[in-house]
Protein 1
Amino acid sequence: MSHNIEDYILLNTVETLGFKKLEKLLDVFKGTSRILKAKKSELVTVDGIDNNLAEKIANLDKKQISKELRIMSKNNVRAVSIFDDGYPENLKTIYSPPILLYVKGEIRPEDSDAVAIVGTRQPSHYGMSTCERLAYQLASMGITVISGLARGIDTMAHRGAVKSGRTIAVLGSGLNYIYPSENKRLAEEICEGGALVSEFPMDTPPYRFNFPRRNRVICGLSLGVVVVEASGKSGSLITANFALEENRELFAVPGQADSAKSKGSNNLIKQGAKLVEDVDDIIAEIENHLKYKDIRQREKPKTVSISASALTEDEKRIKNFLSYEPLYIDELAKKCNMNAGKISTLLLNLELKNVIKELPGKNFILNKE
């Protein structure tokens, strides 16, 4: 049976043609080139192919390919069909995998040892700190971190992972349309030690209805999904539902009982999601499913002491105001004469460097370890 990547790129532009319907077409026509040459009257004889879908396939314009290939070449993007060796193994096992993936960067076989981290676009400092720490530790153990490049928790997951290992960002837009735009630099960093992935043609905008499809890919690439801070109506809960449907492990980080940002994640725990306090809670559930990393035979990631010379001047300044007695973030900001955004970022960096520790209620102390 012939499998031409350019044919798959063209067929992938038909939104209502999923993998299940493509399989039925391939069973009948024995190759993509024959599907594209078929008349509407021939296509509708295939089970599941209605008049509307048959017409879309029969009227595909092959001239679209040359334009798409030019954009891909300009952006150093390649396409991988579900029948290619480079297609992620985990993703093949979901009910309706993408026909095609656009990839910028590199997807490796060992990326099947992966965990997704998702959550709200408006996290608290606690959520950002916890997310970045978990991502950093997972990546340092050789576990690829999967997320969606969105603002908030997704961004922190990628930032934590790029500092110590591999991460893959799944976009709800084409790879020629990085969204949100403020994450363009982060996207470049991800490509250096991981990949950007999308099932959408290169110039596809980030339409709202794209994101549930993106979420199923995030789940499909992973052995488990960790939800960090999600409201009761968060899109992250869609990813959590995919995890349950696709027999992936589901985890949730507990939040404050009275926080709207944690209502969704706390409800997941009530419903049976595994509670995550630290990275060991995740590893305990996935270690028997790992194909490339034997976590049981290696040490868990240790925190590393950071010398004073490794800290920036602003980080040193914050450290000097802290002791082993808790100090509230607003008081610390006032002492350091810094705004909330700047000090939050610096506190995250100091936590990752194991210099300080966050206590409940946004209080901070020096770390004794």
Protein 2
Amino acid sequence: MKFNKWTLGLAAVGVVSLISPARADETKISQVNTALSNTTISGYVDLAAQFNPNGSSGGSPNYYYGSAPNAINLNVVDIAIDKPMDESPWASGYHVEFMVGPVANNMGLPNNIRQAYVTLRTPVGNGIDWKLGIFDTIVGYESTTSANNPNFSHSYGYNMEPSTQAGLLGNYKATDWLSMQLGICDNSYGGYGAYNANTATSYNNQTTGLYHPTLMWGPTLTAPDSFGWAKGATLSVATIISGGNVDNNGGSRNGGQGARTFYAGVTLPTPVAALKFGASFDYLTAADIAQNAWDTAVYSTYQFNDKLSLNLRAEYYDGKNLDAAGIYGSYGYSPNYTTLPNETSYQNGTWSSANYANQAQEITVTLQYALWANVLTRLEARWDHSNNDNGLYGFTSNTGNQQQNAFMLAAQAIYTF
């Protein structure tokens, strides 16, 4: 191959390299192979059949996964591409996760992206692991991924939490029993740090913008082996402080204070190896109007064998302090239960809806069995009760009276790959 004198001169001083086109293509392929090494593809397909004896005209809570009563539903198809970090001091990696289907639509995920972040490690102390991008929230006992939860349906408490956040999150493992998280995220993503379709919601003919960022932090304690039968027990505490937004004229909304989420969760083994317990507590407050809601839930799991388990959940929700203010409503998008509050619902400061629970309880019983390889199957029964005659579960078809009870039966199958 012939090179001109200018190229030869640059090569002589080391500015360019005289690599043939064929060798250059080989080099590019080698770089691609190196970048893709250790990359994995995983995901799941989630389907369910749901029956609500109350009927679809009124009487069923807006379950996160089962939005269509008395029907067979495709809930979600989830695909994730990962390159985990290695053990090197300056390791890096990434995670990209797409969700399609009704669940993704209900969450309002832009471009169906649930998570997309770069992972980085800085060799400070034991090493700080960073996530930069869009990632799942740090609070909550339950996951957006149904297979990671003990039950098919989600709790009221899950709805009170943001689902996905956009920003920077650091995780530091100080010891085998103590790890800590600290992060900052962008309010402009769905309001108050929750990432969804409301990135530019209209409010009084003006467009929302960033005023104060959202801050989040929390430790996790894990019982060491010296705790005997209680080893592996965990206690997680987390706080999310969301600042208020401004309009496009620079004016502050909601006093610039926003919402606050406080969370605590515990998992506890027992002397009976097959039996485990868990509990969670969520507290959500709208700082500038001094209104709040809270929720607590207890969980139990009994593992009969490596395939069969029985999972129970009992829950109490109290949002009575929100009633007088007439908030949680039509503008803020609630990604899970549209009738219950969460931080995203507080995006516009115009929460006005009477159709939410003041006080409610639910009991869920889930029988879980893994019969086929890679397939998780469940049968679930759930009962919800509202303490208030406020129409949480709609109206009866005959009399128009407001209902205080709702029932659900469901069967779920999840294929994981």
Protein 3
Amino acid sequence: MGEWDPSRYERFKDERSRPFFDLLALVAPRPGMRVVDLGCGTGELTALLHERLAARETVGIDSSAAMLAKSAAHARAGLRFERASIESWEPAGPLDLVFANASLHWIDDHRSLLARLATFLAPEGQLAVQIPANDVHPAYRAAAEVAREEPFRSALDGWTRTFPNLAPEEYSLVLARLGFADPSVRLEVYLHRLPSREDVPEWTRGTLLTAYLERLPRELHDPYLERYRERVRSVLPDERPFLFTFRRILFHGTRSPSQAR
């Protein structure tokens, strides 16, 4: 995945933070919680997570140096940030909460990933995850459609961004088989009112398109972005405000004591 631009990502901060609060509402606070936030970004929401839960210890994990440069301002006693990939990071001891808001969709093989994350939890530890699932939206399909055009197809060697997400019902089955009691899984459709359809490429430029731009040579960045904007104009209605629908999967589970490490 390409390097993130914090200022671009935070242009839609209010809209992007709504699922965070919905996910946080699923967590049952307990005294003295030990928490990890996987994919903490700029750390602003991690700090809020730490405060709302009155956690004893919270660590935010992110692989982006640019994002972590912003998170340093939020560090304090009991709250720290580390640069690491979600795939490689491991806690020093059992955790009470593994929290992942809009980060796991960058990682393949969710069955194995969730099995690994489950081993991090203390008895009755909680897992709370929010996964963007908007690959069916025309603006998201447009990114792959442009990537299949020349000269981008040759430069990318035929690569397009694919999403590893499972169906919501599959997450329910995976969690149950991992020993989570009564897992809660839901598909939520968020409606964002953007000024116009021209703002949709700005939204995806802060997330989805980073994967394409990382792989394209610098001289093809602007041509790809311009062609993408043209494609978006052709598939989205010209309305103001533009009603941008965004699907997300939210799930939560509490690990049964007999299943925790």
